[in-house]
Model the fold of this input.
Amino acid sequence: MNGRKRHLLVDTMGLVLKVIVHAANIQDRDGAKLVLAKIVACMPRLKLIWADGGYAGQLIEWVKSACGWILEIVKRSDDVTGFVVLPRRWVVERTFAWLGRYRRLSKDYEYLTETSEVMIHVAMIHLMVRRLSRARLTSGP
Done:
């Protein structure tokens, strides 16, 4: 076990729709295919997916032909220097930051990739329950 990659598919609010954890020796584009192949049947209304430059290339055509969706690559402008917030790309980065706050997810301590995936789901469930309970307390009975 020399390394792992986490691929997340999130909605526009940053909530996890699907997660795949796999060995780090698999290319990002192949990891994306693993995620998208698992959701193609259960998300018929999905039309557009935003991704960063690591997912460019042949994956765009594969997504269109295999899934019927549009994969739009959010690219950073070449003439900009320093840190720049890219539209839509920050959503998944924020989700990774939320997950990084959980000690068990700060590093990959798990032996099985399935356990890593489950721990991500548990962290997101905890996050959503906390938000729902906070919203209920502030809105009253």
About this structure: The mean pLDDT is 85. The chain has one domain: 4-139. Residues 4-139 form a domain with the Nucleotidyltransferase; domain 5 fold (CATH 3.30.420). The first helix runs from residue 28 to 39.
